[in-house]
Amino acid sequence: MEHDHFFQEVKLMVADYLSARIQLFKYDIYEKTAKLTATLFSSLVIAMLASMMLLFLSLALGFYLGSLFNSYGTGFLLVTGIYLAMLLPFILFRKNWIEKTIINKVIAQLTEKEEDEK
How far apart, in whole angstroms, are the C-alpha atoms of residue 115 and residue 105? Predict the structure, then answer.
């Protein structure tokens, strides 16, 4: 009889332990999801603001070059050529530069807490 009581207590303790571990796992997932969402959102805001700044700088450069060449079409064509020259390496090497960097940053963000615990 005493053994049955002991096993019942152990069974309850194991059930409580597993329940606590599952709850801890859920909170860990919530935290990682929140951190990743915050990082993505802040990155998106920075990218949007940088895009707006680049747009207006491009317009200013196009008008400036247009006034130098007495042709706004030539000025904006030169700006387009500059962007094309900058775009080609990104297209050619996007897997090595962009995709791997993003993958590594997301993995680092998701495994950040595990490294802190060690």
Answer: 14
Q: Residue 62 in contact with residue 75, Cβ under 8 Å? A: yes
Q: Is the pTM of this model over 0.85?
A: no
Is the pLDDT score of 92 beyond 60?
Answer: yes
CB 36 within 8 A of CB 109: yes
pLDDT in tens, 56-66: 999 999 999 99
Distance CA 58, CA 83 (A): 10
Specify the amino acid at residue 98.
I
Residue 101 lies in domain:
2-113
In a domain, 118, yes or no: no
What total of structural domains would you count in the chain?
A: 1
Measured CA distances, 53 to 37, 59, 64, 70, 77 (Å): 24, 10, 16, 25, 19
Single out the residue of 117, 101, 113 nearest to residue 34, CA to CA.
113
